[in-house]
Amino acid sequence: MRVATHASDVDGIVSAALVLMKHPSAKIDYLTLRDLSSALEIEYDLVVDLPKLPLAKVNVDHHISNYEKVTKNNLLSGKDLIDPHAPSAASLLIKYLNLENNAKAKKLVELANIADTGRYSKKTYILDKIIKCHSNEPDILHKIAWILVEKGDDFLDDEWLKNEWRRISKFLDKGRELSERIVKNVLKKKIKYLIVDLIEGFPRLAISDLQWLFINKGGNVIIVVNRMRDNDPVCPSLTKNASDDTARISIRVSRNCDFNGRAFAEKLGGGGHVKAAGARVKASNYFEALGKMISELSIYGFVGYIQVRNKIKFF
Known about the structure:
By secondary structure, this protein is of the alpha/beta class. It is built from 10 helices and 12 strands. β11 (303-309) and β12 (311-314) form a beta hairpin.
C-alpha cells in the first residue's frame, strides 16, 4: 500500500500514524505542497491531508479549496472522503480506516483536531514544532509517526522527542522575545492589520508564534512574508530547498475579523482556510503582491508594514 500525506503539520503526521496502525508495512511519502508536482505520475492508494493527485485511488482531506476543485472538475469519486467541515483530515481518516474504537487512535485524532483548528495545547505545540523542523526529512517524519503509533497521546515520554525539544526550545525562546518586541510596538501604534517582511535573522520555526501572539494580543490580520535566504542554524532542512526566486506568504486572521484569508491567498496562487492560508510568489513579483496585500487590508483599516533585517525597522 502506498500513501502520501502532508509533511509539515500535526494532522499529516497523525494521519501517517493512523495508516501505520492499520497497515504497518505501508510505504508513506511525506510531501510538502511544493513536492506535489513531482508526484503527479505516482499511483497512490491513499492521499491524505493534501489535494487530490491525478492517480490517487482515494483522497481523504478537509480543505475547502481541494473540495471545490475536485467537484468543479468532476474528480470526486464515491471512494473519496473530502469534508471541508471536518476539523482535520485525521478525523475523517479514522473513520475510513475503521479505527474509531481504537482508544490510542482517538487520542491522536484529538491532537490533530486541536492543532488544525488553531487551539494549540502544550503537547500539540511541541509536536508541531518538531515536525516543522524536520518537514523536509521523510525518514525523521516516519520515525515520529511510529513514535505516535507506539506511545499514542504519551508521545512526550519518548527520549528522542524529549531531547529534540530541548535542542530547539532555546531557539524558540529567542524568536518569542523578538516577536514580543514586534507586537508590542505595533499594537502601541494601534495597528490591527500587519505585514511583516522577513529578510534576515528571524527564527523560521518561530514565525507562527509571531502570528499567534499578534492575533491573541488583539490584532486582526497578520501576513508574514518569508524572503530570508540565510541558512537555518537549528533546522537546516528548512532551507535546503530554499529558492532565491520565491517569497513564502503566510496569512492568519482573528476569529472576530471577516477578512477571508483563503480567498486572498487564492488571488496570489495559494489557498488554505479562511483563517489560515498561504501562498508562494516569485521574488520578481513580490512588490506587486505586496501592493495587493496593502490594497486588500486597507479596506479594513490602517495597515502596518515591518521589515526585519537583523534590526527591526518600523514604517
